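Journal club prep, shared notes

We agreed each person brings one worked example of a sequence with its structure written out as tokens. Mine is Phage tail tube protein. I'm keeping it raw so we can talk through how to read the token line rather than staring at a rendered picture. Sequence first:
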Amino acid sequence: MEEILVLNGKEISLSDYKEKPIFAEGVGSGAQDVEEITVTFPVTKDVYSETAGLLYERVLDVEVPGRGLSFRGEIINFYSGIINLYEADETEADEYTVTFKNVGNIGA
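Then the structure, token by token:
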């Protein structure tokens, strides 16, 4: 099953997903059970500007519906490949890897 990430309402298909859980007694599900997630996803020329603009916000609503996970996430690490998307054709994709640190509940 394909993993989906939702950032401020925008769905993104992931090529990789890792999470660092919080190990605390009595912690429930949702925003309290993960310290950070690291995701990797392809970015093509046609969605580059929208994706970059979204990531420049730095703190976003982060949801992973397939895992029942949602939290406010601050970008603490970001890197991309070496493809120049301004010069790329429509079929080439760069790969973005982003780590989001859980900084609270959505709407809090």
